[in-house]
Design the sequence.
């Protein structure tokens, strides 16, 4: 993608049922590239909005899949979080991007991080890119916060659904996270802290929309609730949609609000509630 890109090919052009906003759909393509970090071939889904014009500026909406899914989850799945993400991309004429980011159980380890940096760089070489919004649910919501803390210079907004902001305290999916991060919390504690957004609020200057459920046992809400409170005290643009009786899912309406906030927050901070 672009003269200096490592992208090898674009295959499998699709234009059906990729989005549900009226009769409009995203034109989906599967993109393959050679990862600069280790030379492996990696994949992501690229969706161009209706009426896309290559010579016009477009924002990018990155959607990071959950644990056990892959790059097609946010492109095809009818669940609320995915539909809302596709619909927002169409509404705002955004370039939709959904990477594998290394594995179905990635959790944004170093190689996944490097891949996403490379994808963003490649897209900026190929298209006229405005802002980059990073979103996702569950593992993807956690990874969106991680990536923003690691690369605030590449992230203009975040929408995190049912994620964690603290890998040092998080206890689920530890085997997968160990493989992704290169060791256990005891073996590489700095890696876990580095990828925990709660420890780096000073880096999070961009608008952040967060959804969380009080009865979520898969990814407990405590850390993102604390992070939102810290960001509010720092007068950062943050929206926390906390459902006390909610579990490990986000409604269409709530994810829509979080995404819209990440894209275009109101002039003053929305209340943390």
Sequence:
């Amino acid at each position: 993608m672009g003269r200096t890109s490592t992208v090898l090919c674009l295959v499998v052009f699709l234009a059906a049922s990729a989005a549900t906003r009226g009769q409009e759909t995203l034109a989906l393509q599967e993109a393959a590239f050679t990862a600069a970090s280790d030379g492996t071939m990696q994949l992501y889904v690229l969706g161009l909005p209706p009426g896309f014009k290559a010579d016009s500026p477009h924002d990018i909406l990155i959607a990071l899949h959950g644990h056990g899914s892959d790059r097609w989850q946010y492109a095809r799945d009818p669940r609320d979080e995915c539909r809302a993400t596709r619909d927002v991309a169409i509404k705002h004429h955004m370039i939709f991007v959904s990477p594998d980011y290394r594995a179905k159980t990635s959790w944004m380890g170093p190689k996944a991080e490097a891949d996403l940096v490379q994808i963003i760089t490649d897209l900026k070489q190929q298209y006229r890119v405005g802002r980059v919004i990073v979103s996702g649910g569950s593992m993807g919501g956690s990874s969106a916060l991680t990536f923003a803390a690691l690369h605030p210079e590449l992230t203009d907004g975040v929408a995190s659904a049912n994620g964690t902001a603290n890998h040092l305290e998080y206890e689920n999916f530890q085997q997968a996270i160990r493989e992704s991060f290169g060791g256990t919390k005891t073996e590489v504690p700095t890696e876990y802290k580095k990828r925990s957004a709660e420890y780096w609020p000073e880096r999070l200057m961009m608008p952040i929309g967060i959804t969380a459920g009080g009865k979520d046992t898969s990814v407990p809400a405590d850390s993102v609730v604390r992070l939102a409170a810290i960001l509010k005290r720092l007068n950062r643009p943050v929206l926390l949609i906390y459902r006390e009786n909610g579990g490990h899912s986000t409604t269409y309406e709530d994810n829509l609000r979080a995404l819209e906030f990440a894209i275009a927050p109101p002039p003053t901070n929305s209340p943390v509630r």
About this structure: The two ends are 42 Å apart (CA to CA).
